[in-house]
Amino acid sequence: MMPRGRLVTVAKAAACVVFAGHMAATCTQHIPAGSALRPLAAPFVHYDELTGIWQSWNMFTTPPYLHAYDVDLEVLERDGTSGAAGPMLPGIRRYDGSLRAESFFTCVVDDPSCSAYLAGYFDRMCAALHTRLGHGGQRIVLHEVYDRLRLLPDIRANGVIASREEHRSKAFDCGG
């Protein structure tokens, strides 16, 4: 058995190797794509993705756009009745207020380049509604309401922070 002092030394050395590797992974992800040093980042790609340390944002470029955000799902039945449901999957839950969900819904409702995600989302939502209600045939529409922040000179001019906007996705037919 290894003496306690030796074990502590080995543990400290191992921790140093782990921390140095983590630091290298964090630093190499910032090497520009066109740089001759970019191949140094390749061994760390899987580690960056696994740990979530990979970042592609720049904190100085984009001010926030929205002051408040909410989204729900309008469910239109074949008999003409309608209702609202939570848009979150799994489980048809209420919008949870998370930035990840807000980013997803603003993308699929407002950005045509996200249409492939919208189709997949609607397919899964129709399946969840069918399971919950016991039948298909609904038409569903995402309905988002948000307060878009105004420019600072405009806010100073009249004290109104944001302008209310409502958007609806295209209607999706869940079939029979």
Keyword list:
176 residues; single chain; 5-stranded antiparallel sheet; 20% strand
Task: Describe the overall structure.
With 176 residues, this protein is α+β, with helices and mostly antiparallel strands. It folds into 2 domains: 4-51; 66-173, no CATH class. The protein has helices at residues 4-28, 45-51, 99-110, 115-133, 152-158, and strands at 66-76, 82-85, 139-149, 162-168, 172-173. Strands 1, 2, 3, 4 and 5 form a 5-stranded antiparallel beta sheet that branches. Strand 1 (66-76) and strand 2 (82-85) form a beta hairpin.
Radius of gyration: 24 Å
Please give the alpha-carbon distance between the first and last residues.
70 Å
How many distinct helices? 5
Structural class: alpha+beta
SSE pattern: HHEEHHEHEE
What percentage of amino acids are in beta strands?
15-25%
- Overall number of structural domains: 2
Number of strands: 5
SSE map:
Blueprint: H1 4-28, H2 45-51, E1 66-76, E2 82-85, H3 99-110, H4 115-133, E3 139-149, H5 152-158, E4 162-168, E5 172-173
Antiparallel strand pairs: 1-2, 1-3, 3-4, 3-5
In a few lines, what is going on in this structure?
The model has no long low-confidence stretch (mean pLDDT 87).
